[in-house]
Structures are given as C-alpha cells and as structure tokens.
Amino acid sequence: MKKNILIIGAGISGLYLGYQLKNKGFSIKILEANNRIGGRIYTKENHKTKVELGATWLWRYNEELLKACKELKISLFEQNMNGDALYEATNTDLPQRFKVPKNQEISYRIVGGTTTILDKMLENLSSDELQLNQKVVKIDDSKEAIKVITEQSEFTADIVISTIPPQLLINSVKFSSKLDTNLIQVANNTHTWMKDSIKFALVYKTPFWKDKNLSGVAFSNIGPIAEMYEHSNFENNHFALMGFLNGRLINESKKQREAKIKEQLFKFFGEEGKNYLSYEEKIWNEDELLNFKNEKLIPPHYNNGHEIYQQEYLKDKFIIAGSETSKKYGGYMEGAIYRGNQIVAQLTHKFL
C-alpha cells in the first residue's frame, strides 16, 4: 500500500525529503508555515542581483550535497578570493592588507543562487504536494493514523516527519501524547544553526575593489562588519559584497546599523564603498519560524546529531528530521541532505 507521508517544513531538509520520497513511490505532502520556501536558504534579488542572506557555501567534503547537486544538474563555481584581504584590529589603526593563504579550503557557491537547489526539487512537486502558509500547531496521534493540525486546516498521514529545528518544534507545536522527557530535555538544549547570525549584502554598480587589487574579503575585531566576502555572480555581470555583522548590533535599528556600516566601508574602500545601490540584511534571531527566543545560551552545534533524534516517536509514526538532527555536519546544508538520505533509506526498508 502506498504510504502517505506528511513533511513539516519546506526548507532544504523538507523539500529534499519530499523530492526523494516521491521518487521512491511514497505519497507526500509538505506543509510550510511561511509564505516562501527555503527556510535558512534565503536568496534575495535587488537591482537584478541575487544575494544570499542565508546558507551560501559548500565544500569538497560535502559529499552528499555534491551528489544531490549532480543529480539535479546544478553547477557550482569557486568563491572568489583573488586579491588582498583587509583586517581591522583597532579603532585607531587603518585596516591592514594581507594575502589570504593559498592552502585555504576552496568554498563553492551555486550558479544562479543557493535557491536554485530548491527550485530544481520544486519542479517535481505539485501545488497540492507543497502548501505554504500552513503553520502547524498540533500533532494528534490518538487514532491509527496521525493527524497534523495547522492554523488553517487538518491533514491525516501514516507518517509525519518534522524538519522544524528541535528546540522550536517542542516549544511551538502541541502533542496529544506526552513526548519522551529525555527528548524534550535534549531538544531544549540543541543549538539551532544560523539563529545567532546577522547577514548583510551590498549591491554595487561595479566591482571597484578589484581595481584596488582587493578581493572584497575583510575582517574586523571592532567594526559592525565582522566578516565580508566578494559576492558577485558567476557571470560576473552583477556585483556585490556579503558577510556577517557583529552580533552586538542586534539591539540597534536597521538605520543605525547601516550608518555604522557606511563608516566602516569608508575606512575599507574610501568613498566608493559608501556608494552602493542597495543594502539588505537578515537578523535570524528575530525569525519566529526558526528561533525559539529565550535567554539560554547554547554553544554552536551543541546536541546536533544526538542519538535521541535517530529514534521514531508516537508509536513509530513521527520522525524528527532537519539538519540539526544529522550526525554529520549538523546545521549545515550537508547535514540536511545526509539526514534526508538516512530517513529515505529507513522508510524504504520499512515499507517497500
């Protein structure tokens, strides 16, 4: 009998699970609380330039993700690191130029933007199989099947797979049956990747930094910009810089952050640095569909891939997935694909 599988979340974890399980012959449906797909993949376009405010890079050791890209016919290109980098140590010293070591691990980006991997998987899904604006509020396993209740509708399935970050899952969804107390304890102490990040991007008319023999790479101990990288597209006809802001800026307004960034750009590049076409930012801590806000400080990757996430729950009808549950590269895109493949193999062995 064709098993009906419901997946909560349409980030890379949920879409990949839906794509693979449908190919295996399962009946699938994906529910997404947001009005867009992607989760922590967030490619935004301004002035015809695509910039990444979420997941951006992959590396040669990301074997499962590279296999997925090959299967989906997705092309990659190297992150540009040509030219000098800048380092700002103190408020009183000018930024110093330095050469990035040649033995650095090469990072890659996806041609057309990281969202390309989502769009390719989306081609295999119907409008009924993926539904947006369906925020899950309760999971009811009191009957033989399992029921998922959203703010808009109710859905019944044989198996439910959640790709919501574990800490957010157990604090935002009600369950008719009491969850394992050890699961609750571990989930409440599981780090959610990206939640501590403030990403920004600047679109420019020209790559003026190249004329100065600069790579666009910059690091600062004291400024609003903690890290920055060149972010032009593969065709090299749209130009941008992208990076991470200092976490202390979270309590300031966007206008205040942008003003401080302009000052730092002037120190890095002179007047040209301030003459950008657009400024974009994403404060992931403020995203209620990613982060459960509390005062608890959890170290990066803590409890990612914990053994408790490898079990099935609610009479074997409920699986907790998502990148944080992966034993390898938890939190990253590679972790999402690795965990997805693990679950697909598990369900295929069980039902097919």
UniProtKB/TrEMBL annotation:
It comes from the Bacteria. InterPro entries: Amino_oxidase (IPR002937), FAD/NAD-bd_sf (IPR036188), Flavin_MAO (IPR050703). Residues 89-343 form the Amine oxidase domain. Belongs to the flavin monoamine oxidase family. This is FAD-dependent oxidoreductase. It comes from Polaribacter ponticola. The lineage of its organism: Bacteria, Pseudomonadati, Bacteroidota, Flavobacteriia, Flavobacteriales.
